[in-house]
Amino acid sequence: MDMKKAFEQGLYGEIADNPEGVSSSEDRLMLGIALFKLGRKKQAMQVFNEIASEINTLAKVFYYMGSISRDLRDTEQAGIYLERYLQFYPDDDEAYDLMNEPEHDEGFVDVPTIPLARIYAQQGHYEQALGIYSRLLKETDTDAETRKEAHDVQDRYIIHTLETWLERLKK
């Protein structure tokens, strides 16, 4: 049975009575609608719940598309993707941070130094500071004090993230 053709012809009973012909998400949607139109609402709800669960899982794609768009310097498109993602995951602080992160300016010097990491950390730009510390720890022979500094900044970042999360919960 051609599910789409049967649906277009309004053969809802045929669709509902042959659920084994369902092979795609679109087919499941047509099955759910057919069940609904036939008044078999509990069965339709079961089908719709399965689809909704799948949609929630697949909506994560918008986060990654937003992240990639940011990396490609397309902040407008990144914002669109992240807004769509946040409709499904409104409590995701990382997505909010990514959406509100200032655009990287090519004109700034991008040389990782400990003083620059300290400045970023003092200003509350923990992600940038941690990025610098991470590069320094990978690329150079760093002392124990620098490693401790990096861990302290990481701890402050975690605390800041938790505080932000608690503030959003209060709202």
Outline the structure in words.
With 171 residues, the chain is mainly alpha-helical. It folds into three domains: 3-58, no CATH class; 60-100, no CATH class; 114-170. The chain is 74% helix and 0% strand. It starts with a helix and ends with a helix. The model has no long low-confidence stretch (mean pLDDT 85).
Characterize this entry briefly.
The chain has 171 residues and is an all-alpha fold. It has 10 helices and no strands.
List keywords for this structure.
171 residues; 10 helices; 3 domains; mainly alpha
Order of helices and strands, N to C?
A: HHHHHHHHHH
Low-pLDDT ranges: none
Number of domains: 3
CA radius of gyration: 25 Å
Number of strands: 0
Instruction: Give the CA-CA distance, first to last residue.
Output: 51 Å
Which secondary-structure class do the elements indicate? Answer: mainly alpha
The geometry reads as elongated
Q: Which bin fits the share of residues in helices?
A: over 70%
Chain-wise SSE layout:
Layout: H1 3-8, H2 12-17, H3 25-37, H4 41-58, H5 60-71, H6 75-88, H7 93-100, H8 114-122, H9 126-139, H10 144-170
